[in-house]
Fold this protein.
Amino acid sequence: MKHGARLFFGIAGVLVAIVACGSGSFDRDDGSQVGADGAAAGTSSSLPPGMGSGDPEPEPEEEQDQAFRVPVVSGRWVWTANPTSGRVALIDAKSFTVKTALAGAAPTYLTALPAADGGSRALVLNTVSQDASLLSAADGGDIEVLATLPVHAGANAWAVTADGHFAIAWTNATLVPNADPSQGFQDITVLDVAASPPTSKRLSVGYRPARVFMNDDGRHVYVATDAGIDVVDLASDAGPIVERELALSDNPARDTARREVSVTPDGEYAFVRRDGQSYLTIVDIARRKLKDLVLPGVVTDLDLTRDARLAVAIIRDRVIPAESAAAGAPGEGGSGGADVASEAAGAPDVGAAGAGGTSSPSGRASVAVLLPVDTIFDAPDVYDRVELDELFGSVELGARSETALLFSNAVPSTHLTLLGLTEREHRTVDLKLPVLTAVSSPDGAHALALLQPRAGSQQPGAFAVVPIEKDLPPRIQGTKAPTVPVNRAKDLPAMVAVGDRRALVTVSNGSDVNVAYLVSMPELTVDTFELASVPLPQASGLVPEANQAFVAQRHPEGRITFIDLDSKAQHTLTGFELSTKVGK
C-alpha cells in the first residue's frame, strides 16, 4: 500500500489518477501485442468493473505517508535548510556544534548522500534559483559547496541511488496545492554527483509522476506516472535517457480507476492495484508482458516485503459482488475470469481457528493474499490465502518482513492484527480507539500505531505501542495535540520516527501546543517534552550514532531540540545561524 499518503520509511505503492495517454507497444502474456492506442491487436479489449463503467467504488483505505518521512540524517549529523536566509546548517548531534553555509535562493528540499567515515554529504533543492547545491563536510570541518547544478522549475522531491552516484530531482504533484490539469509535472532532472565535475540533465516522463523507484543495480529508475511506468537508463551511451514506457492495461485511455504501483527492488516486476477492483495487474518489466490476476474480492491495499519475496494483497470483504464475478478480469490472456476466481477460491487457506484471534467488531471477515513474487507471473494460481474473522483493509510490512500489520482506517476499527508471514499465526490487539495507521520497529519487535479520537475522547489524539514478539498488553498514550489533523489549515500531521529501542512521536496544533513523546522499548514507557515552537514538517527523527532524538522547529534564525535517548536530557539550539547556542 503506499501512497496517496503512507507511513514511515517509504512506502511501497502510490495512488495515481490515470488519464488518456498513449504509450509504446508491449506484449500481453498470450503473445498478442498492444499498440500505442492501448488496444490489443486482433482482440477486443474488455474492461473490468469500474473502468469507465460508472460503478460506485467501495470506501478506499487511506495511506498516511506524511507521518513517517525519513529525516535528513547522515551519521551523527543532522542537515537543516532555511529558505528565508538561504543558509543550510549541519549540526553535530554529539557535540551540538553547528556549521552553516550559503546555498542558492530558498534552499528547501534536502536529501542525504553516502559519505566517507566521519563526514557528511547532502543535496538541497533551491526553489527560487531553480538549482541544486551539492554540499560536503569532513569530520569537524566547514561545509563546502562542491557544485551548483541547474534543475527544472518546481522540483520538490529527491530519489537517490543506494551508492549515491545519481540523484533525481522530480515534482510530486501531491505537494502542489490546487495544481491545474495543464500542469503535468513531467520534467525530472538527473544529477550525476559522482562525475568530475558533477552534471545534470533534464528529461521528460509521463503525466504526473507519483513514485520513483531505484533499481538495486544503481542503473535503472522506474517512474510511476498516470500513463504507466517510465524506465530510465542512467548509464546509456547517450547518458541518462528515458528508455521506454510500459502501459499498465490494455486500454490506458479508459483505465480511470485510481491505482497503486509497486516495483520490486531488482526491477523485474511491478504490481498494480486499482481502487474498487478485484484484480491485480502483474508486469514483467524485462519481457514487457502483463497479466491480470483475479482475486476473491476487491483489493483494498497492496505491499511488498522489503526483500521482495512476497506481495501481500488485502481484501477487506471476502465476498465477490455478483456483478464483479460475472465481469471477470480485463483483457485477453490474463489470468482470466471465473476460472481464475475459482482457482483463487481453492487456494490454501489459513483460518482463524486456533490462531488466537478475536472476532471482528462488525462481524465481517477479511483476507490477506500472499503472492510469491518470483513465481506468481508464470504460476498465477499458486498462492496462499489467510482468511481471518477480523476487519482489515490495509497492510504495513516491516523492515524484517516477518509480521504483517493489518488494520482498517476506512471502516473505523480499534483492532490491529499481527500476522506472521512464515507460520501464518496471528494475534489481534484491541487499541481502544480507531486505528489510523501503524508501523513496526526495524527489528520487528514492536509496532507503533497512530489512533483517531472519537466522540467523548478527552485527548485530541493518541498512539499505541504494541509488543509483537511477546504477547504483552499494548501501551495506549493520549496526546496533547491531534495525531490526525482536525483543522487541516492549521493542525500538523503527527510525525513518527521508530528505532529498535526508541520511538519519537511529535504532535502540534500549529500554534501553542507542541509536544514530543519519547517511547522506550521494551519498557513501553513514555516521556513528554514540551517544545518552544511549532515543529517543521518532516523534521524530527532519531540519530542513533549520537544517541539522540531531535525536532527542528520554526524560528527565523533556526531552532532545533535534541533529547538524549537514555538520560532524557534536553538541549535546544536557537539562533544557530548567528553562531549562537542556547542550552536548556
